[in-house]
Every structure is written in structure tokens, then in C-alpha cells.
Amino acid sequence: MVVRKDKKVKKLRGKRRHGKGNIKNRRGAGNRGGRGNAGLHKHKWSYTVKYEPDRYGNRGFVRHVKKRELPSINLWEIERLIVRGECPKEGELYVFEFPGKVLGSGNISFPVLVKAKRFTEKAKNKIEEGGGKVELI
To answer: Is residue 8 part of a domain?
Structure first.
């Protein structure tokens, strides 16, 4: 069965307020929930979800670059390796190679040739005071 619906304007022709009540009810932006796109995140949410689904939220990614920290070793650890006999001796110096940073915690009583990427000032001074040498890789 075909049902033909007339426009609401035609139905309400001759009615003074077109079914909206007092004229105060049609006045101002408060009646429509704000001007323009105001309120799309709150009370006009259904419009946003339907017609602008990508308007809010995060897209893409942020690449967090990790700092490349060098491995580190202290002087007391080098001394312990020498005592255990894990460092070879060339002439009068023990040779210790390390692909990181040498820190100055502890003391070293052996003459050592330390080869590393980086040294702290304290470590350099202690190695040289113990009769050793410092060499950058």
C-alpha cells in the first residue's frame, strides 16, 4: 500500500508557530545547541559520529627514538678481571679492551693499557696514576 506523506510545512500552513510553541522557544543559538559546530564533542555527538568520524582522536604514530647508551665498566671490575687472570699481559702492561665507557669507581693497582670508546676524567687519572695508559678506540 502506497502512503503519500505531505511536507510538514504544508500540514502546518495557517498555524502560527508551526508546532514549535512560543516564539521564545525559537530565539537564539541556545535553541540549536550553539552556533555552527559548537558542541560537536558533547551534545551534537551523533552528527560528528555519523558525518565526521575522523574529526577527533589520534591518528598516525610518534616515533620515540631510544638513546643508544654505551655499556660501562668500573675500574674495580677491571682490577678483578686482572686478578682472575682474564686479561692478557703484553710486556709490562696488562691489556684490556672494552667497547664502551670506563668509569672511575674503585682503584686500580696494576699497570694496564685500557682501550675503550670513552673514559671519564676520574678514570683516566686513576689509570695513569697506577702506571697504565689510556687509548681511545
So the answer is: no
Asked whether residue 94 is assigned to any structural domain, the reply reads yes
Query: What stretches of the chain show up as alpha helix (H) in DSSP?
Result: 8-11, 45-51, 75-84, 121-129
Q: Rounded to an integer, what distance in angstroms lies between the CA atom of residue 20 and that of residue 38?
A: 23
Tens of pLDDT along the chain (137 residues)? 677 788 888 888 998 888 888 888 888 888 888 998 898 888 888 888 898 888 888 888 888 888 888 899 999 999 999 999 999 999 999 999 999 999 999 999 999 999 999 999 999 999 999 999 999 99
Q: What is the pTM of this model?
A: 0.53
State whether 111 and 85 are in the same domain.
yes
Domain residue limits at 128: 72-136
